[in-house]
Amino acid sequence: MARRSAPEVNAGSMADIAFLLLIFFLVTTTIDTDRGISRKLPPPLDETVEPPILKQKNIFVVELNKNNDLLVEEAPMKLEDLRAAAVAFLDNGGGSGDEACSYCKGEKSPSSSDNPEKAVISLRNNRETSYGTYIAVQNELVAAYTELRNRESERLYGKSFSQMESELKDVNYSGSKDRLKDQIKQIQLMFPEKLSEAEPKK
C-alpha cells in the first residue's frame, strides 16, 4: 500500500504577517521614560581655579544616615519640617553692606545665611540610605527654592514662577517668550539653586 504524502502548508505569507504585526506593535506601544532629578553637573575640574571660600554660616548641612534618620545642622528633624527650615535659611538675609538682601523676609540673624546668592545647601547621605527617603529629601529642598521663587515672582510679575515655566513650554503661549525668559532668569538669580551633594559615606 502506497504511503500518502503529507500536504504542504503554504508559508509564503507568514513573513508578511509577522512584519505587519511588528509594525503594528511598534506604532501602538508607548514606552515610559524614567524621570530623574534635574541637576546640572559641575564643569570639569580645573586645577588652576581656586574653589570659592564659603563661610560656615552660609552652608546648611542636611544629613541622612543608614537608618534614614534626618539630621539638619547636626540636630534631628522630621521630613515635614525640612522645607520650612530650608526656606528660613535661604531667606534669612543676615548680610550687611554689599552682602545685604533687599528682598529677603527672614529673621536677618547674623548666625545664618547672608543672602540667597551665597547660601548653599549641602546634602550628605549614607550608601545604605533608602532611595525613597533620598528622593523625599531632595523634593523638600527643591520645594523650598520653588516656594521662594513663587513668592518673588508673584510680587514682581503677578504670577507664580511655576506658571511662568509652564507658559514657556506652552507652544500656544501668545506673549513674548523672550520677555518671559528674562523674567524667569531674574527670579533664578534672586534665588539660585545651590544644592551640593557630597560623596556618600560608607
Structural account:
The mean pLDDT is 84. The protein has a 5-stranded mixed sheet with strand order 3-2-1-4-5, with helices on one face. It has 202 residues and is of the alpha/beta class. The chain has helices at residues 14-28, 79-90, 131-157, 161-169, 177-190, and strands at residues 59-64, 70-72, 75-76, 120-125, 195-197. It has a domain at 56-148: 2-Layer Sandwich (Nucleotidyltransferase, domain 5), CATH 3.30.420.
Write the layout of secondary structure elements.
Elements: H1 14-28, E1 59-64, E2 70-72, E3 75-76, H2 79-90, E4 120-125, H3 131-157, H4 161-169, H5 177-190, E5 195-197
Parallel strand pairs: 1-4, 4-5
Antiparallel strand pairs: 1-2, 2-3
| CATH fold node name of the domain at 56-148 | Nucleotidyltransferase, domain 5
CATH 2nd-level architecture of the domain at 56-148: 2-Layer Sandwich
> Under the CATH scheme, which class of the domain at 56-148?
Alpha Beta
Question: What strand line-up does the widest sheet have?
Answer: 3-2-1-4-5
Largest sheet: 5 strands, mixed
Q: Which regions contain 5 or more consecutive residues with pLDDT less than 50?
A: none
Helix content: 25-40%
Outline of the structure:
Helix content is 38%, strand content 10%. It has a domain at 56-148: Nucleotidyltransferase, domain 5 (2-Layer Sandwich).
Spell out the key features of this protein.
10% strand, alpha/beta, single chain, elongated, five-stranded mixed β-sheet, 202 residues, Nucleotidyltransferase, domain 5
